[in-house]
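Sample intake sheet
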Amino acid sequence: MQIADDAGLDLIEISPQAVPPVCKILDYGKYKYEMQKRKAEAKKNQKVIEIKELKLRPMIDKHDYEVKVKQAKKFLSEGNKVKFTMRYKGRELSANDMGKAVLDRLVDDLEGLIKIESAPKLEGKQMMMVVSPL
């Protein structure tokens, strides 16, 4: 402590559990500033993964389907997860195998780009499936 006072610096305890405790002599304000900068840099380099949702219908037209596949590829290339939601109306719910077929076709078209996180499952009037990039 005397050496730190003579130098006009602070005595900082680095690891108190060690025997004897490890201490450093340095400027505490500067140390605190550098730690804050390191934390900000680590946060800046962090990638936040978003979940993008694409809504479909069982009787989707060919061109509309191709647009959805193109959007899904774009989202996946950006590193985002994609949630496909198949919405049913009226009597379509009784023939939910048509919607399942569309989702299976999506998986086939995106093969090599995706990993299925949650398989298609029916919840109420909609069937959902979540995929993530490889």
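Comment: The chain has two domains: 2-44, 51-133. The CA atoms of residues 58 and 101 lie 8 Å apart.
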